[in-house]
Amino acid sequence: MRSARDGGDPVSAQPRLLPWNGVAGKPCYLVPSEDGKGYLSRLADEMEAVQLRMGTELLGHADALLGNPKAEAGELRFLANRLVEALRDALRVADSRGRRIPLPDADEDARPPQTRGAWG
Q1: Of 43, 32, 29, which Cα lies nearest the Cα of 9?
Q2: Would you give the end-to-end CA distance of the chain in angstroms?
Q3: Which of 66, 88, 93, 94 lies deepest, with the highest CB count within 10 Å?
Q4: Are 89 and 58 in contact (CB under 8 A)?
Q5: Using only C-alpha atoms, what is the Rg of the chain?
Q6: Per-residue pLDDT for 116 more than 70?
């Protein structure tokens, strides 16, 4: 891990999984600039935001279509395919962002575990 030159937040030295595929459909990665704000990083951030926004809008359409008892099989199949695409995009964004979360320092590992929250 390294720090931004201006003393900002740490930037992971790990390659970033981009929200689009490279040649032959293979994953495409970017080694980010020191500050993590290069042109391709910003483009990837914008693309991820669009993908997540489109997924949110698709959920609204899904609610409406699934609430329609007269929805036809072709419409539902089309919806299912778009939902699969949106889920795939969202999982890729989560994977990309998860890889960029810095690992805790060794000192942080020595701390006692926190008590569980209300969720479990």
Answers
A1: 32
A2: 32
A3: 93
A4: no
A5: 20
A6: no
In the block, which residue shows the tokens 């993908």?
A: 51
Q: Could you give the CA distance from residue 54 to residue 35 in angstroms, rounded to a whole number?
A: 28
How far is 120 from 116, CA to CA, in rounded Å? 6
> Residues, the chain, total?
120
Reported as a single tens digit per residue, the pLDDT across 1-28 is 334 444 555 555 689 999 999 889 999 9
The whole-angstrom separation of Cα 12 and Cα 45 is 15
Q: What is the pTM of this model?
A: 0.71
- Rounded to whole angstroms, how far apart are CA atoms 54 and 47? 11
DSSP states along the chain? -EE-TTS-SEE--SPEEEEEE-GGG-EEEE---TTS-SHHHHHHHHHHHHHHHHHHHHHHHHHHHHT-TT--HHHHHHHHHHHHHHHHHHHHHHHHHHHTSPPPPHHHHTSPPPPP-TT-
